Amino acid sequence: MTENKKEQKINIELPENVADGLYSNLAIITHSHSEFVIDFVTVMPGIQKAKVKQRIILTPQHAKRLMRALQDNITKFEQHNGKITETQNSHMIPPYSGPIAEA
Q: Edge-to-edge strands of the sheet including 26-31?
């Protein structure tokens, strides 16, 4: 490996307040020419209101890398655990007047 191609290692910290994660069953994705915005929401049955729990803003290049990484992980998951079946739970999602959700 040449000096220019040495792998750089990044020390990534996971703070306690982030380690538990947040549950989301809806992602609303919007974009402009320079960024993708993903709003993660938790929709509860019978509740007509939901709040964005977390917003992530990505460059288009990083959004594409994320898409590929998710696809790779879904493929590996399905090889080990079987095909993920998608269900239509539209009755769980309250009427929404914002952008069309994509999950």
A: 26-31, 36-41, 52-58
Q: What is the pTM of this model?
A: 0.72
Instruction: Pull the structure tokens for residue 73.
Output: 């992980």
- What is the per-residue pLDDT across 51-81, written as a single tens digit (0 to 9) for each? 999 999 999 999 999 999 999 999 999 999 9
* Spatial separation of the C-alpha atoms in residues 25 and 44, rounded to whole Å: 9
Domain-wise residue ranges, the chain: 22-83
**Which tens digits make up the pLDDT trace of 13-45?**
999 999 999 999 999 999 999 999 999 999 998
DSSP 5-67: GPPPP------HHHHT----SEEEEEE-SS-EEEEEE---TT-S---EEEEEEE-HHHHHHHH
52-58 and 36-41 as β-strands: parallel, antiparallel, unpaired?
A: antiparallel
